[in-house]
Design a protein that fits this description.
Blueprint lengths: L2 E5 L5 E12 L2 E6 L5 H5 L5 E3 L15 H4 L3 E4 L4 E9 L6 E5 L3 E5 L5 E5 L4 E4 L9
Parallel strand pairs: 5-10
Antiparallel strand pairs: 1-2, 1-4, 2-3, 5-6, 6-7, 7-8, 9-10
Length: about 140
């Protein structure tokens, strides 16, 4: 997996080939061939880095890529529809799902709340703490 497409705010595209990558906390730091100065890297700010999903490595047990979660339906334990995951916010503690239903709710992605993620059915089952839907 070393080929990417960078897409800028105005839709411009640039093909990039990975030189090296390393973890830095919860983020990845990547270097690309042909991008050897800070100024050259600055040109890629505020863009989107895309890769073919089929070529991505398995994220591991109990893990998922953000793009895999977007669009999944969220239901509570009794099957009541809460909405659809529209965004995943990265916080210092844990990811938070932005779920759009009758109204927008923010659902922390933590073990006591998220009970199951079924990619085949396209559903995330949760047990929300009392009052969370009213916030």
């Amino acid at each position: 997996m070393d080929q990417f497409v960078w897409v800028g705010r105005n839709g411009q595209e640039r093909r990039l080939r990975l030189f090296e990558a390393r973890a830095m906390g919860h983020r990845m730091v990547a270097r690309f061939h042909g991008i050897s100065t800070r100024e050259a890297a600055q040109e890629l700010v505020n863009g989107e880095l895309r890769a073919d999903p089929e070529r991505l490595p398995d994220p591991g047990p109990g893990q998922a890529y953000t793009f895999q979660l977007l669009g999944l339906r969220m239901v509570n334990l009794d099957g009541r529809e809460l909405g659809v995951v529209k965004e995943v916010l990265r916080t210092g503690a844990h990811p938070v799902y932005v779920v759009q239903g009758a109204r927008e709710i923010l659902v922390p992605s933590v073990g006591p709340i998220v009970k199951q993620v079924d990619f085949e059915k396209g559903v995330i089952t949760v047990e929300l703490p009392a009052g969370l839907e009213e916030l």
